[in-house]
Amino acid sequence: MSAKLGRLENLIGYTFHDVKLLDRALTHRSWAYENLPGADDDAVREAENESMEFVGDSVLGLVIAEALYNGHPGASEGDLTLMKHHLVSTNTLSRLADAMNIGDFVRVGRGEEKTGGRKKQALLANTIEAIIAAVFLDGGYIPARAMVVRLFGDEIKKASPRTSIDYKTMLQEILQAEKLAAPDYKVTKTEGPPHSRTFSVEAIWATGRAQGSGTSIKSAEMMAAAGALDQLKQRAGEKAKRV
After folding, report:
1. Are 132 and 144 spatial neighbours (Cβ–Cβ below 8 Å)?
2. How far apart (Å, rounded) are the C-alpha atoms in residues 104 and 26?
3. For labelling, which of 56, 77, 207, 226 has a CA lying 20 to 30 Å from the CA of 62?
């Protein structure tokens, strides 16, 4: 085992039985494509961490849901959902990954390296999910749960419905209050290679439209909703001035 992986084990507080799982969790698709010459898509998928992100996302969601349920016994399902969405968001995950310097451990291709891939929010967030999966696959749910609770401890303690802003929900509620239909979200543009997409989304409602972009359709929709809220706030201010 390399000293580098050993340092990461110390950071996350877990020692692997099969360190190859951790190695895979840190392997970005761009590295696999560049360093497995002649490999087919199946071989690349077996070497990179995207499928592990899927597992890690599910484990993370379960651990966070359990922690919030136990920590906020009187909270409604809506409030719990809002807090969970905030805690498992790309923004929260990437912030925690950046604080741990996870980008220094990730294996990325030359192209990804040149474009600052190690600092990209989506890459950092996805890597955290893959590491959670690696711990789960190596040791089971209990050590994976312990690691998530340890790494997310402060975020879980601070979580509240008031601090967990969901712009899409806010926009829908404002439009409903004005007797308007919920907004539609339409993907208007997709840019970048498969492993590093940027999506542009337009939020459309009865009286306007707003654009947003992000590294996932979900985050792009959230930014479009935020833009719509800004427009509505500005219009309300202008209307108040005229009265």
Report:
1. yes
2. 10
3. 226
Q: Tokens 């604080």 label which residue?
A: 99
Tens of pLDDT, residues 28-63: 888 777 777 666 666 667 777 888 999 999 999 999
27: three-class secondary structure by DSSP = strand
Residue closest to 142 by CA, chosen among 80, 89, 66: 66
The whole-angstrom separation of Cα 19 and Cα 104 is 17
Which residue in 130, 176, 128 sits closest to 21, CA to CA? 130
Q: Which residues are the active-site residues?
A: 57, 129
Indicate the pTM of the whole model: 0.69
Supply angle C-alpha 193, 196, 202, rounded to 5. Answer: 95
State the CB neighbour count (10 A cutoff) for residue 229. Answer: 18
Residues 6+ apart with CB under 8 A from 28: 48, 49, 106, 107, 108, 109, 112, 117, 123, 127, 195
